Amino acid sequence: MNVAADMSLWGLVAQASTLVKAVMLILLLASVISWVVIFAKRRLMKRTVRDMERFEDRFWAGGNVKDIYDERQRHDELTEGMPALFAAGYEELKRRRVDETATSADIVPSVQRAMRVAESRELERLESGLAFLATVGSISPYIGLFGTVWGIMSAFIGLGNVQQASLSMVAPGIAEALIATAMGLFAAIPAVVAYNYFSNRLDFIENRFGTFMDEMAGIVERGVNAATPPPRDRAPRKAEPAEPVRTAPEL
User: Fold this and answer.
1) Residue 168: inside a domain, yes or no?
2) What confidence category does residue 68 fall into, taking pLDDT thresholds of 50, 70 and 90?
3) What is the DSSP string of 27-73?
């Protein structure tokens, strides 16, 4: 076997020790899984933001909250993201409005709790996989370094068993060991970049969720308060231009 073949990338990997090969395999698997998570998470985040913006455009276009709920339910679009928060809040409102003696002080906190529970579920779904990216980004360089240290140590131990040492004898062992470090960085860098990017997108989504929940709670409070006068005074009021939803939900 010639020197060029020995010093090629595949040649160095093939002649690496069993432990260094195991380290390289672990890093390769970690890198592949990281890229799968990255692409899946990118699609999920993109879909969540797109659905959120589409829902907000429809929500603030005016109309009745009940009509918006029924419209989304007909199209089965209340299962993820901001529509899921809206559905949880509106369904809790319907349950609480059965009690005619309930006031805004009773209904609004219940609606807010229901939306917060839905928000927690949505954020948990969006956060899934980020812990794996963080783990890969943190430990991959150390795993690669471990393979490098072991490979260099093995190369120098082998060098000590010969009468006349030369650089050509130790170079392949050091080179194959350094491949482990390179693979560790190859696995870690995309994982860290993706983790930071998705964390920022998640903060953006969480802020939008929080703003919507506050606005929804305000609409519920105004609707419940408007429904408290005697029956003769319950005629719907004309919506102001700045009010996106004209009336409180009707059951």
Assistant:
1) yes
2) confident
3) HHHHHHHHHHHHHHHHHHHHHHHHHHHHHHHHHTT-SBHHHHHHHHH
